[in-house]
Design goal:
Length: 357
């Protein structure tokens, strides 16, 4: 199953709006007969790739799958039927399918006489498929807030200079995060300060994410780098914003969120992105936008790159998040801490998320 989970990770960034799934098939004697993973949306599922690799060796064998085999016909046929038709004797899956349109594969397999077990390494498989599982359960994209800061929590110096706080290794790692996301999001402040490009660089074969700019008053200039043709771009503006200077741009108009910053509604934006097929968002905006997302309880994972640097002054990584006292603090559980060049990359999730999973 761990091998299947590792295989599933190869599909990150290319399967949305479908999940990442890995499959390992053992023959009747327990030897590996075939492996596969879901490579792209609309293509064969992991089980089909593994069955094709196994051929006749699948008969009487065991299939280890990271997600309960699907039970519906979409752009591909139901994997539960394919496994049964191939003569698989036993199926072991990690996580049950929460999608009401696709669930029921375990029952279908049992009805066909296949032995079925669920829950093996469920936590590890959940972590690898967190974006898709969250999107199905909550009806909105999974949000990763990424930032780079000094050890004293500053994202820029007092004079606003910020290039570069983190190392080249950390910046390269951010491109991996972009490649795994369906959309990359910044606000108008980051756009004015940095004129970011937001496309993926240095990763061969990467699917370019949707670049999203949250720009309440449509202050973006037509010359902004994010408006080139390297990747698609969506500009989210207020309902009354003047966008005549942006002919041909993909624009969505959203209501104001008057409960926090007076900016655009975070959940309205996420609803719009979900409707466009976005299942994961990498939030690369500045402290104001990050604060709005935290206040909206819309941050599912935090990835912080901490550089061995001290500034003592300058903007903090997170601005007002609607937290006025320590008892209201958003508590996090660290899931990983690794060295990236000279920096420390810390990954954490809200404590409630681990309890719910």
């Amino acid at each position: 199953m761990r091998r299947a989970i590792a295989l599933a990770a190869r599909g990150l960034g290319s399967t949305s709006p479908n999940p990442v799934v890995g499959c390992v098939i053992l023959d009747a004697s327990g030897e590996t007969a075939g492996t596969g993973y879901h490579q792209r949306a609309g293509g064969p599922h992991a089980e089909i790739h593994a069955l094709l690799a196994a051929g006749e060796k699948a008969r009487g064998g065991t299939a280890y799958v990271t997600l309960e085999p699907c039970n519906h016909t979409g752009r591909t046929g139901p994997c539960a039927h394919a496994l049964a038709d191939a003569g698989i004797a036993r199926v072991v899956y990690a996580v049950g399918d929460p999608n009401p349109q696709a669930t029921g594969g375990a029952e279908t397999l049992r009805a066909a006489g296949v032995e079925v077990e669920g829950g093996l390494l469920a936590d590890e498989a959940e972590a690898g498929n967190a974006a898709w599982l969250t999107s199905v359960r909550l009806g909105r994209p999974f949000v990763v807030w990424k930032y780079a800061a000094t050890l004293d929590g500053r994202i820029a110096a007092a004079d606003a200079t910020s290039r570069w706080i983190s190392s080249p290794e950390s910046r390269a790692d951010v491109h991996r995060l972009r490649a795994e996301a369906d959309a990359v999001l910044v606000g108008s402040g980051t756009l004015r300060a940095d004129d970011p490009h937001l496309a993926v660089r240095g990763i061969e074969g990467a699917t370019q994410p949707l670049r999203v700019v949250l720009d309440t008053h449509a202050t973006i200039l037509p010359t902004a780098r994010v408006l080139d043709d390297a990747a698609p771009t969506l500009i989210a503006v207020a309902e009354d914003a003047d966008t005549r200077h942006l002919p041909g741009a993909d624009i969505v108009r959203l209501p104001h969120d008057r409960h926090h910053t007076g900016g655009l509604g975070i959940h309205a934006l996420l609803t719009e992105l979900y409707a466009r097929g976005v299942r994961s968002v990498l939030l690369e905006g500045g402290p104001t936008l990050a604060g709005a997302f935290v206040a909206a309880a819309a941050v599912d994972r935090v990835v912080g790159y901490l550089a061995p640097v001290l500034l003592g002054a300058g903007p903090a990584a997170l601005a007002d998040a609607g937290i006025s006292t320590l008892t209201e603090a958003l508590r996090l559980d660290i899931t990983e801490a690794v060295r990236i060049g000279p920096d420390l990359r810390i990954t954490a999730v809200p404590s409630s998320a681990l309890k719910e999973s």
